[in-house]
Design brief:
The chain is mainly α. Helices cover about 45% and strands about 5% of the residues. Among the domains are: about 50 residues; about 55 residues, no CATH class. The chain has a two-stranded antiparallel ribbon with strand order 1-2. The two termini are about 35 Å apart.
Length: about 260
């Protein structure tokens, strides 16, 4: 973990503490399963294949998490924010895996799993500082890892020796000698995939009717999602994309 002035945002994190001496129920629900079941032509009223698939998944979860003692399946109800985001991410991650690792199929004993949490930040500045903290941390860790593996793979140094030399704080010089790049200029501001929505429409009204809100939601759903490796700490990123914090559709200004 990199030490930076932005790490104060961790103070906003809160652990969810459950009551002692209670039975804990973890609820996992399907999102948009009416459309999903139609897409895959589930048989009505109950599709044995779909039911068995749910049962197999539940059994697998109980095998992996041995503290669970019972699982009960019913319908496909909607769940909470964190679980929806995590499960959706996991589903897409697994689905896209063969595209990036075609020669390494996922194995039953080594399947990807993810956890999730929700942290509330009360102001825009807190949010920006959180994003800055993540990018500073990413940059420093990337710089360290690039130097470490350059020493090991290109310089023939052992892992232990590389760690020892990096403790001396000579990271940029070592990296430049082993790999002819300027880590400050070439790596600065790079993060693995900042996602942003970009749309051609723009609205200025502060208070919207129900119809206008629905129109805006449709515009947001149609917006393109771009992956950008940019500096999100400086004001320029946010000034060029005011819709991110205003939640209003917009477009990048012409340069």
């Amino acid at each position: 973990m990199a030490n930076s002035k932005y790490e104060y945002v961790k103070a906003f994190e809160r652990d969810d503490v459950l009551l002692p001496n209670t039975w804990i129920v973890v609820r996992i629900d399907g999102r948009g399963f009416h459309k999903f079941s139609s897409q895959y032509q589930f048989r009505k009223p109950n599709d044995v294949r779909a039911l068995n698939l749910m049962n197999v998944a539940a059994k697998a979860v109980m095998r992996d998490l041995s503290d669970l003692i019972i699982a009960y399946g019913v319908s496909d109800e909607f769940s909470k924010l964190v679980s929806t985001v995590v499960s959706t991410f996991t589903a897409h991650y697994v689905h896209a895996w063969p595209e990036f690792f075609p020669s390494m199929p996922l194995e039953l004993g080594s399947l990807p799993t993810f956890d999730g949490r929700a942290v509330e930040y009360p102001s825009v500045q807190n949010l920006r500082d959180y994003m800055s903290w993540r990018q500073v941390d990413c940059h420093i860790n990337n710089l360290y890892n690039t130097t470490f593996w350059s020493m090991v793979l290109l310089g023939g140094v052992s892992n232990t020796a590389a760690e020892y030399e990096l403790k001396a704080g000579l990271l940029p010089r070592i990296l430049f000698e082993l790999q002819p790049i300027d880590p400050q200029g070439n790596q600065q501001g790079k993060t693995p995939g900042d996602g942003e929505k970009d749309d051609e429409a723009s609205e200025e009204q502060l208070e919207l009717s129900k119809t206008q809100r629905e129109k805006r939601r449709k515009l947001q759903r149609k917006a393109d999602i771009a992956i950008a490796h940019v500096d999100i700490i400086k004001d320029e990123f946010w000034e060029q994309r005011p819709w991110i914090l205003s939640n209003r559709p917009g477009k990048l200004p012409e340069i």
